[in-house]
Task: inverse folding
């Protein structure tokens, strides 16, 4: 079954919750300490208009609250805080997660390791429809 990818983080939260079921999370992402585990949170913060160094800002709070809502709804496994990117990929590849946020490296890895897996790549959601990410002015 092919579905439209979420285009906003509100849609991402809803889709992840709807796709979660017994034994399956809606979304897999690495959450371990360090740069590897910060990727999902940083992406969410940027979508909310915050820089990665601005965790104590409205955008930083929005990102943290979004992840908390997904954990509370079962859309994101509580275990994500211990997962590296390989773990997130394995959750997705084995059907224990319906979607994942991961580095581009895993596109080829998934193709090679799971040639029969039916999946697609989508643009990450923004905060609102029609909003584009931009680089900070220097």
Result:
């Amino acid at each position: 079954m092919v579905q439209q990818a979420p285009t906003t983080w509100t849609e991402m939260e809803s889709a992840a919750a709807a796709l979660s079921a017994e034994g399956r999370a809606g979304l897999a992402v690495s959450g371990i300490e360090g740069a590897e585990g910060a990727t999902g949170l940083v992406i969410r913060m940027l979508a909310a208009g915050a820089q990665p160094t601005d965790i104590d800002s409205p955008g930083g709070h929005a990102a943290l609250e979004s992840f908390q809502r997904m954990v509370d709804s079962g859309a994101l496994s509580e275990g994500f805080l211990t997962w590296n990117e390989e773990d997130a990929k394995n959750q997705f590849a084995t059907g224990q997660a319906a979607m994942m946020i991961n580095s581009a490296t895993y596109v080829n890895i998934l193709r090679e390791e799971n040639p029969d897996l039916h999946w697609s790549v989508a643009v990450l959601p923004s905060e609102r429809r029609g909003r584009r990410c931009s680089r900070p002015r220097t």
In short: The CA atoms of residues 95 and 115 lie 14 Å apart. The domain at 9-113 is CATH 3.40.190.10 (D-Maltodextrin-Binding Protein; domain 2).
